[in-house]
Amino acid sequence: MVSNTIGVALRHRGPDWSGIYQHGDNYLAHERLAIVDPDSGDQPLFNEDKTISVTVNGEIYNHEELRKGLKNHKFRTGSDCDVISHLYEEHGENFVDMLDGVFSFVLLDTKDNSFMVARDAIGVTSLYIGWGLDGSVWISSEMKGLHEECEHFEVFPPGHLYSSKSGGFKQWYNPPWYNESVPSTPYEPLAVRRAFEDAVTKRLMSDVPFGVLLSGGLDSSLVASITARHLAGTKAAKRWGSQLHSFCVGLEGSPDLKAGKEVADYLGTLHHEFHFTVQDGIDAVEDVIYHVETYDVTTIRASTPMFLMSRKIKSLGVKMVLSGEGSDEIFGGYLYFHKAPNKQEFHQETCRKIKALHKYDCLRANKATSAFGLEARIPFLDKEFINTVMSLDPESKMIKPEEGRIEKWVLRRAFDDEERPYLPKHILYRQKEQFSDGVGYSWIDGLKSHAAENVNDKMMSNAAHIFPHNTPLTKEAYYYRMIFERFFPQNSARLTVPGGATVACSTAKAVEWDANWSNNMDPSGRAAIGVHLSAYDGNSKVAVSLPPLKTVEDMPMMMGQGVVIQT
């Protein structure tokens, strides 16, 4: 049983330290990115007599509170992850739900030669498990640590643990929303605000310089605003200064660059803009697919600018950033949610989206940043915050333009503070832009054009024979699939990537909400015809510009107007 990898396959994830431990035929290996206690927190970590060893990727935000309940134990380091071995001594394998954080870990108990593996609730950290013909079990943060050693490997399911004692998986995370029954808690704006502020502030735990990713959209702007308010009291501020660094990436003149700078000026952050060209992105696609380990079109589109930005951020000496993923899933913020027929369908779709996050946005945020030894923290996916939002009566989340309620209205209203504004009004009520759209619409169009130059009609006609599983339906998808198969030719690898019909990032089930969507199967937000202000149809791909908004108050009604395109 080997944790992560013995070698250099994952060294990009942890450039600060390489640790390895052997006991019999068990090996633990770790590549460390030091965020908390960089001086003494090298791994593997051990209990007092070194009978229990642990390798961990992630952060345990409540480690100080947990230490108070472990007064009879002596800790070797100040690492937040040092509590894991001691919790195991006290509670056996039934301690994972006590951890407030994101994590993937392997724990080896040398007293009986057993081991356990666990992954965080939503799958913010990436993790895979594989099996060798010789009976070995392999665990790795990325596929590339397994695919040459294992006969079969797969995604380690979020919210689960694996025990060598039972030889199988056990679900440790089972919140009330998981069964998809419709909740009924009334919406209380201040409760949502407090829960999210708590989620952000606990993630400011760091002994190294950090910043925020700031696209100028609602989600990243709220993360930046709360961080800026609370930064002064953190350890990092005392050591590195109290001015927040913010980062944005986009094509020249993109929506994100303009909005990001405006929010940065409002918050007083030290703002860093990174520009890239369509050709820069195209040149990086192969590296992106290698690092992110997917052929999913949406993920590759969004991962590429994030990948390019992460390289720049790391060059500035920053090791950790806060990011805004997850909001659209828990609040129903994607534009296709405008078409949800009722609150039950709305809620069940949010549940499906959260459960699938580890295959999409979490995968992107984790691996696109880890490619350069940068860590992304995701406040919207805080366990307690998710529980707060997912317990709300979904009627309050539904999009009702006739009542002035646009997507994510409950989040916008929670932070609409007249006395001490978090954000300018027009930013607080800015329409949703998917990351791959917001960096510049010509980015996606450029990718499609490049793919068309490399994939011809004859290749597409044989796609079902070449790729019978998740057959690519577009030339762009075929192009990505060719690259992926070159890096990861095993059947196990292709099975780790999700498939199915989607429009504007919907699940296959939600495609049924609008009959017109079946003719326009594209993950871009612009595919939400009748919703996006720059929508396009499936035949012409002609962008449509609606009349400019005169006031913020115009926005809810404008978003509800249908768009008919004639060419």
Topology:
Blueprint: E1 2-3, E2 17-23, E3 26-32, E4 45-46, E5 52-60, H1 63-68, H2 83-91, E6 101-109, E7 114-119, E8 128-131, E9 137-140, E10 152-155, E11 160-163, E12 168-171, H3 189-202, E13 210-213, H4 218-230, H5 235-240, E14 245-250, H6 255-267, E15 270-275, H7 278-292, H8 297-315, E16 320-322, H9 327-331, H10 343-356, H11 361-370, E17 375-377, H12 383-390, H13 409-414, H14 425-428, H15 435-438, H16 441-454, H17 457-461, H18 463-466, H19 475-487, H20 491-495, H21 555-559
Parallel strand pairs: 1-3, 1-9, 13-14, 13-16, 14-15, 16-17
Antiparallel strand pairs: 2-3, 4-5, 5-6, 6-7, 7-11, 8-9, 8-10, 11-12
Helix pairs in contact: 3-12, 4-6, 7-8, 7-16, 7-19, 8-11, 16-19
Notes on the protein architecture:
With 567 residues, the chain is α/β, with parallel strands linked by helices. Helix content is 34%, strand content 15%. It is built from 21 helices and 17 strands. The protein has helices spanning 63-68, 83-91, 189-202, 218-230, 235-240, 255-267, 278-292, 297-315, 327-331, 343-356, 361-370, 383-390, 409-414, 425-428, 435-438, 441-454, 457-461, 463-466, 475-487, 491-495, 555-559, and strands at 2-3, 17-23, 26-32, 45-46, 52-60, 101-109, 114-119, 128-131, 137-140, 152-155, 160-163, 168-171, 210-213, 245-250, 270-275, 320-322, 375-377. The strands form 3 sheets. A 6-stranded mixed beta sheet has the order 2-3-1-9-8-10. Strands 4-5-6-7-11-12 form a 6-stranded antiparallel beta sheet, with no helix packed on it. Strands 15-14-13-16-17 form a 5-stranded parallel beta sheet, sandwiched between helices. A hairpin with a 2-residue loop joins strand 2 (17-23) and strand 3. Helix 3 runs antiparallel to helix 12 (383-390), helix 7 packs across helix 19 and helix 8 (297-315) packs parallel to helix 11 (361-370). The radius of gyration is 23 Å and the shape is globular. The termini are far apart. 52% of the residues are buried. Keywords: Amino-acid biosynthesis, Asparagine biosynthesis, ATP-binding, Glutamine amidotransferase, Ligase, Nucleotide-binding. It catalyses: L-aspartate + L-glutamine + ATP + H2O = L-asparagine + L-glutamate + AMP + diphosphate + H(+). L-glutamine binds at residue 80. This is Asparagine synthetase [glutamine-hydrolyzing]. Pathway: Amino-acid biosynthesis; L-asparagine biosynthesis; L-asparagine from L-aspartate (L-Gln route): step 1/1.
